[in-house]
Amino acid sequence: MPGPPAGFSQRIEQYTGTYLESRHNQTGVEKLLSLQSAVKIEAAEGALTTVGIGFAWPESETARWMEVEPFVLRKIEGQGTLIFLTDGQGAVVDLIDKNDPQVVYQKQPWYETAAFHLPVLMICLFIFLSTALGWPTGFVVGRIKRVASPRQSFLPRLGKVLAWCFSVLSLYFILAFFSMMTDPEIVFRVPPALDQLLFLPLLMVLIAVGLIAFTVLVWARRYWRIVGRVHYTALTLAVIVFLWWLNHWNLLIYTLGPRY
Length: 260
Fold this sequence. Notes:
Elements: H1 8-15, E1 17-21, E2 39-44, E3 47-51, E4 62-69, E5 72-75, E6 81-86, E7 92-97, E8 104-108, H2 114-145, H3 154-180, H4 192-197, H5 200-220, H6 226-248
Antiparallel strand pairs: 1-2, 1-8, 2-3, 3-4, 4-5, 5-6, 6-7, 7-8
């Protein structure tokens, strides 16, 4: 195959990125499943590589492509053509596989990709896990060593209880949710157990309101040491980000919307 046409090195960055099929659930909990069918295009050794497009089997195979004309790529080994569509400013917005032209793949901004959302979720869960395990462990160790801790008033203790409850509920929700999403029936309907689980985020929203209020009190009344206050604030920020994450994937207010 001859080399790419002039200007390929300048256009290659326009091609790379993550693409999703235009036809996917955007209003239900199944929206999260769309990440599984994402097509990722990367630059490699003067060519482009893809996974999940340009062949029928196996879906995990990597295909290599070379530009034959601007915004048209040909498969290096085998048959296949990719056509990139641009907007009025010349930026790539859509992708079509000539072998499967009824499917349009839309280029996703960086904040809609798994590379962004997965680390955000992992950071939040790490903070929740440190709270769910760290505080009880510290209490037990202190009891075993018989370390006298200063007696706290009702409000700071309540603040810790709410933080611990949110952390445990969030960890349970994520574990239960992803285990239920492995059910093949999720493609056709929301399993009853998952439908019930989706009420849990509403309780978490109420707890989050209390955590925000307590965060203000923690600094205003100087509860605990500075490390404890910083951790509590980081936890509250993680709570806010986590609720945003749930809302983005239709897991926060799903139970308030229409049923199937």
